[in-house]
Specification:
- The protein is mostly helical and 468 residues long.
- The protein has one domain (4-443).
- Helix content is 66%, strand content 1%.
- It contains 17 helices and two strands.
- The protein has helices at residues 4-20, 25-41, 51-54, 60-78, 89-105, 112-136, 140-167, 187-208, 212-232, 235-252, 257-273, 275-285, 298-304, 306-320, 351-382, 388-407, 420-437; strands spanning 175-176, 179-180.
- The chain has a two-stranded antiparallel ribbon.
- A hairpin with a 2-residue loop joins strand 1 and strand 2.
- Helix 15 runs parallel beside helix 17 (420-437).
- The longest helix has 32 residues, at 351-382.
- The protein starts with a helix and ends in a 31-residue tail after the last helix.
- Mean pLDDT is 84; it is low at 286-295, 300-304, 440-460 and 464-468.
Length: 468
């Protein structure tokens, strides 16, 4: 059987959902852009997509990606700001300064066209998020529709692949050095996707699912995510998933926050103190391929870690250009001399260090200030004691924001518009800003979709509101 049928299943499933399950044009356009990034994240070569079809700037898939990004921007431009939306002028100013720095840095980059196109693509994405997604998420109903799309995405991209793996058929899945990657091109992409999609599944399990079979199905999907992470041995993905789940329950359970912190602390202490668990953890995070007999515990593992070798190697060169950097998306080219692994050397595996290499201290400072402003809003939302539904919506956005910010410390996807993880991260960031700007009176009215009868207060996904 041709492996391309697995990719056709993915694409066909999303197109069916966007055509028949969602009537919101803005979400449809976002879904199409999300879909093209999913295609790029899959194991394209295995599915029959040649580099000529996707890699170059003028390739068919690349042009399609640009076209869908443009359509996403156009829909955002048409979206009107809600009347009671609260603007954060300092955050907007910092964001504009950071984006301007990216564009200007192309002037002194090694390749002006490459750096400028990368910067322009991120500027367009940022505009679509700032102008479109933040206004869209102002409505709780729209948040639920977006969550629904992500919930379906988890079923399409995670469940069939794990069935193939456990059944022994293996059709359509990727195995790299005995590491499971599902339909994706590498295990790190699979791990990060699993981590950032988990809060949407938990939300459906706790809020939307009301029948017993729905609860069982959601439990099976969560178990699928855990099994996939275990077989993938994705270190960063597993840690990010644990962090996302912890943050989610910390926000929604006002009375159990101390218990959640205590439980997380006990797990960490057990891993650090217990020699047996520590040895097992080392075998896990080393992916079962220890490079040195000296790797016996966590401290010796850190010394052997390839990422740290790259970071130590490029740091002196980055510091030489600490005021300007080497130009947006250019600093990662300096990584190759400091790694024996050409695959790992394609990226610096640290988004924060990479932006420092690209834009210098000014760019890094602007990024940290933007994230600081968003983190302040997330903290403010976590302290609110409103409806259980609203706290749960906030918990999804905040948990993805926290887990993604942590994940970016070991991966370089933060400013790559063509990377699926970048979209999975920045959209919830827009969600955090939107929920901070939200006022309860704005979602009390029924929502009427053209050609459809008025839906209940929160749309098709009628949640359980009895819990406080």
């Amino acid at each position: 059987m041709n492996p391309a049928f697995a990719l056709l299943f993915i694409v066909g499933s999303f197109l069916y959902l966007l055509r028949y399950r969602f009537r919101d044009n803005f979400l449809r356009v976002y879904g199409l852009f999300f879909l093209i990034l999913v295609v790029y994240a899959t194991n394209k070569a295995y599915f029959g997509i040649s580099p000529e079809m996707s890699e170059s700037a003028g390739s068919p898939l690349s042009l399609l990606r640009w076209a869908l990004l443009g359509l996403f921007v156009w829909q955002a431009w048409r979206y009107k700001m809600p009347d009671t939306f609260r603007l954060d002028v300092p955050l907007a100013t910092l964001s504009v300064l950071l984006l301007s720095d990216m564009l200007l840095s192309a002037i002194y980059a090694e390749s002006f066209s490459y750096s400028f196109l990368r910067a322009m693509s991120f500027v367009l994405l940022a505009y679509a998020l700032m102008k479109g997604m933040t206004y869209y998420f102002f409505s709780s109903v729209n948040c639920l529709r977006y969550f629904q799309l992500k919930y379906y995405a988890a079923w399409i991209l995670l469940f069939p692949a794990i069935v193939m793996l456990l059944s022994g058929w293996g059709y359509g899945i990727t195995i790299i050095m005995n590491q499971y990657a599902g339909f994706f091109g590498n295990q790190n992409m699979f791990g990060t996707f699993s981590a950032l999609i988990t809060p949407y599944v938990i939300f459906h399990w706790r809020i939307v699912a009301q029948k017993r079979w729905e609860k069982v199905a959601d439990g099976a999907l969560l178990l699928t995510i855990l099994i996939g992470l275990w077989y993938s041995n994705s270190r960063n993905g597993t840690i990010s998933c644990v962090l996302a789940v912890t943050v989610y329950f910390f926000i929604v359970n006002l009375q159990s926050r101390l218990k959640i912190i205590a439980a997380a602390t006990c797990v960490v202490l057990a891993l650090v103190i217990s020699p047996t668990l520590q040895s097992d953890l080392v075998n896990f995070v080393r992916k079962g391929t220890d490079k040195s007999v000296q790797v016996k515990d966590l401290s010796s593992q850190l010394n052997e870690e390839e990422r740290f070798k790259m970071w130590r190697g490029v740091w002196p060169q980055f510091w030489k250009q600490k005021l300007t950097g080497y130009g947006f998306a250019a600093s990662h080219l300096l990584v190759f001399p400091f790694t024996r692994d050409e695959e790992a050397g394609r990226a610096l595996h640290n988004s924060y260090l990479e932006i420092f290499g690209d834009l210098g201290l000014p760019g890094l400072l602007l990024l940290l200030l933007v994230l600081y402003r968003v983190a302040g809003k997330a903290f403010s939302l976590s302290q609110q004691r409103g409806e259980y539904l609203e706290r749960s919506i906030n918990a999804v956005f905040i948990s993805v924001f926290v887990a993604g910010s942590s994940n970016a410390f070991f991966e370089s996807w933060m400013f790559s518009v063509g990377n699926l993880t970048s979209l999975l991260y920045w959209v919830p960031v827009a969600g955090v800003v939107a929920r901070w700007a939200w006022k309860p009176a704005s979602v009390r009215e029924p929502v009427i979709v053209a050609g459809a009868s008025p839906e209940p207060r929160y749309g098709k996904w009628q949640p359980q509101l009895e819990r406080k």
